[in-house]
Amino acid sequence: MQKIKTTKEQVIESLNTKEWISGESLSQQLGISRAAIAKHVNSLRHEDYLIESAPRRGYLLKLSPDPIDINLIKKSLKTKIIGKGEWLYLDNTSSTNQEAMIRGAQNIADGSLILAGVQTGGRGRKGKTWFSAPRSVSFSAVLHPNIPSKKLSLLTLIATLSVQKTLKEFVGLDAKIKWPNDVLINQKKLAGILVEASLSAGEIDWVVIGIGCNINTERSEFPPEISQSITSVLEESAKNYSRNVIYKEIISYLDHYYSLLLNNQEAQIIEDWKQGSDIINKIATIQSNPKVSGSITDINEDGVLVITDTSGNKHLIEIGDHTKIQISD
Ligand code: BTN
Question: What is the pLDDT averaged over residues 251-274?
Fold first, then answer.
């Protein structure tokens, strides 16, 4: 028996031509008023459809939602730890990191993942907010690593590296890690990482690695105040990628580098991170009193930045360090 299509389904079908279609033609095709068409278009826009409209031209469907299928992602993974705990998909949430921290405190299994369709209160570093773009990747992993707390910086390093590797090796973009927690393409931010942890008596209870990465977002969908400083995979590659596939790649790399970390193979992590970051030999200025300036000569085995000043003195900067640091060529 053939299923009768809803008006919404008919509107989507009629819009799905990659061409402009006038409100008048839609109204005639579907036998509903132009006001009803406008209402449907508006509600589709709230469901991640990017539909442009212009006087005399009508409507153009530019992007459709990119549904997340956690079973598909799960099946495609061959990971050892990450993805081996619980999986939670939230259509709409304030922040996956917040959700993950609540569950971390409840002792959720190691390697659990929380993915979001939409985040309304994405958390960024230093109390900033993170704009979760339409059709982006937003997720958090909960881990219970048995490592000394002085190695916590390495978790940010493995997360930025996993995103950089995905963008470089899988998508083919010239992605670079920007210290400490960004991934950039052509100097524009494409991804941000926020690692949050709970310690008791100096030992790690749990860690949340939160990753946000802009995938199928058009520049026009970014807020104007940041639209020139951020970018997406779509903008940089002119291609749409299924988020399910991008999730698989990032999670697989994360699991690989996390396993290296647990097996004391920090040297390999640092080597790959240095290659993905272009940071060595750059000039760092630390806004301390007195101001310190020097060349970035290394990242040590704890993921700490080593800056060597002109007198040969070494200064160490950790990721969680609140000292302001400027990095230039
Ligand atoms: C930054 O650039 O300052 C870090 C941004 C981190 C954003 C991700 S999106 C998934 C996870 N949930 C959050 O609330 N934040 C992180």
Answer: 97
